[in-house]
Design brief:
Layout: H1 14-19, H2 22-32, H3 40-47, H4 53-65
């Protein structure tokens, strides 16, 4: 499993993100954006479906590039 540094300025690279699993991407999104709706339970309640790997990767790439 991918381990995240606790420092708030830590940023994964695009290459790192592309090698992560769906759950690792979601864990990073939760770590990086505490106000987002990313975990399966919240996503099901809010949107009626869980975040796919492709969608999670898209969100991570947007956040690390932005």
């Amino acid at each position: 499993m991918y381990h995240f540094k606790e420092h708030p300025n830590h940023r994964v690279t695009i290459e790192d993100a592309k090698q992560m699993t769906r759950l690792e991407l979601i864990a990073w999104l939760i770590w990086n954006d505490h106000n987002g709706v990313y975990d399966d339970h919240q996503s099901l309640r809010e949107y009626g479906e869980v975040m796919t790997y492709e969608n999670a990767l898209e969100h991570v790439l947007r956040q690390i590039e932005g």
